[in-house]
User: What shape does this take?
Amino acid sequence: MSRLCLPRAVLALSLLLAGTTGCKREDPPPPGGEEKAPVCPTAAELDALPLPASVPTTGTRLCRDGWCWVSHEPQGHDLHAVWSHPTEGAWLVGQAGTVLHWKLDTWTWQSTPTRNTLRGVWGASPDDIWAVGDEGTLLHFDGTGWTTVPAPGDTVDLLSIEGLSSREVWAAGKGGRLLRWDGSAWALVPSGTSAELKEVSVLSADDVWVSAQGVGLLRCTPGGCTAQAGPSEVGATELPRDMWERGSERWVVFGHPPVSYLWKDGAWSVERIAPPPGPDFATTYSDPWVGGANDAWVFITQRASPSIATRWIYHWDGGTWTRLEEPFANLADRRHVSLWSAQTLGGSSPSDLWAIGNQGAVLHWDGSTWRDLRHLRGFLSAYSPSSPTVLGNYTLGLTASPDGARVWANPTAGGSRLDVAASTWATSEGDWHAHLIPPPRGVVSSPRFTVSGTGVQPLEGLQPGDPEPWRTRIHASARDNVWAMDSQRLWAWEGQAWRIALEGQGELFAVWTHGPKDTWVAGAEKLLHWDGEGWQEHPTPGFTASALWGAWRRDLWAVGNKGGMAALFHWEGEQWSEVSSDALQGLGPLQAVAGRCASEVYAAGSGGALLNWDGATWRRMSVPTTLDLYGVTPVGKELWISGANGAVLRQPRPAP
Assistant: This one.
């Protein structure tokens, strides 16, 4: 450890820190004797803590495996495929092993034995449904639960599944993988190619079509596949955009703009569905859904500039493409948020059509009206009620008041306009409320806020050179002990004015304060400590902390990455030491740490990783998401996590 014992006056003048030795200072013991670690709350004390009011545990915000969504209704995972039944509802599959069931205007988040992304779903009946996904995932639903079914061959991603009956089901995927289920077992079918097989279309056991990247169309039987010529206007190796079976007919979609061609009676028909309006260089199209010669749907995006675009739903009635206006007027209230996020069309009939996509977007057409079945009454709508789209490239940090009555979610993505907001989950109303932080440095009349465990506080008297709150990380132990940092500077607030407390140390990543004489800052491969008079440097070669948290001044955790992998360091009052644990094996960088006391600490990070320290051992916790996590905090008697795509989930504490 090198000690940088610079007096406060030197720091105020922003001089570079210089290493010195022999200057360790210890705080005097508190009145009444030696300071001791705080006692952990009892179960009864936790049960007595309040929660943010009206936090639903059932209903529109879904729960699964002990975790409930807070920020999205019904949930926030990307959705990739849908299969629907005329009377028993629809099954939607997607990210992190997500399976949703919709029936009678009610959502259910069904448990599955995988966290791999699911990319295809098809059912012979409501109690005989198959789903496929990444790493060879093959699941079956028997009407009561989902189970894993081993897939033959080596492990490759499966992308599509379709069938005719419970005895005739086909699945396709990467590396030319083609599988067939005959009612009793799955078997490999030689596709004759190592290309990526995008989609499978089944008319009979001897008439299975497969779209192959760089190859075009294949026609397959249980014995193997041969090339299938496309329409004369289409290149021999052009990849179809989609395929739909309608009775004995097959519609295949090619091109940009998309044109739907009809295969009938063993040949390509002259009958086809004309391309939608356009095209021009700024027009893009979703893959159409084709119900027949007189019924097709497509989403069209028309861009006026790189930052200005509109998106519309178009319908084909057999002679004309028509842009729908009134049937989705209810979407206009949220400026077509779900319409922008929808990526995939699917459904069982012209009166049962689904549009699904990113961050849980779900739209349903019942034959007369499009309904938005995703409700953004969480953080996203509180932040941007008039935004025409939901940005997917931002993350949320998380902190809570000591009594658990309020929670603050702070966007952390650099460069995004979402950096200028903090949202509060209010006890009195039980919903998110935005506290906007205006970015222009020269505007001094607008309110500015900082968010920490002590609350949402105005930053008074900001001057040029003071912290830019929309880019800072904040920690405070009291209203007169607030520390704010961006990537290069650290400021301190002691009740009267901001002062520059640290700079010239390279990039800074995290700050934690226990009091005015005990503050830690994480830099690149080092941790810096302020004892009230000077800074001491503690090198951590190869390890850079992303977050800090302490139960008290002699018990502090630093989490981050070492060589691109998860790493933990612990401070016990004298030195930092790396903590090895089997729970860290194979994990990417950790991004957040928080706890209630010395024997209840949590760390969160890449791929939905969540760890718990019980005072003796770190263990992995099961979380139904694979989103990168950037925030974790106890909230009253519960645990909350946050991360990519604006996700916030909560783990209710079991009733005593």
